[in-house]
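Hi, here's the filled form for the chain we discussed.

Project: internal
Contact: R.S.
Residues: 162
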Amino acid sequence: MVYMDGANMNALVGIARPGDFGIDVMHLNLHKTFSTPHGGGGPGSGPVAVKKHLEPFLPVPRLKRVKDLLTWDYDQPQSIGKVRGVLREFRSAGAGAGLYLCAWRAGAEECHVDAVLNANYLRHKLRPYFDLPYDRPNMHEVVFSDDRQAAKACVRAIWRSG
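And the returned structure, exactly as it came back:
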């Protein structure tokens, strides 16, 4: 089985399907992929996507449809059980992600294209003010260095091991 860190899925959403290239389980960080404020539900809060063969082991309760109604389903004998705090986390984290998905319903691939476009735009606009450790076009995020600002302010980082 293969696990994928889906922290930056916004670079792939609408473009690639991780299950198609062998991924069995993956988490999504809502603050990166679906524009939810960081900490919007707790550390690491977000959905976990699994292939069908892992579904019986997911936590309970699970949402299920009974006719036209949705209800909680606790009858899952192979489940790992209840995850504490799940309702608190999904209540706050899910709202932002849901709004984000509604905004992109016309085409999720546009989300990917905009993420790449925005990161390159920011790289171009902020380049005169910050150093670029990697001077090449980027994908969905750009990394700057604050070495120039630290030198002007006479600030230095002190790294300690262990």
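Let me know if anything looks off before we file it.
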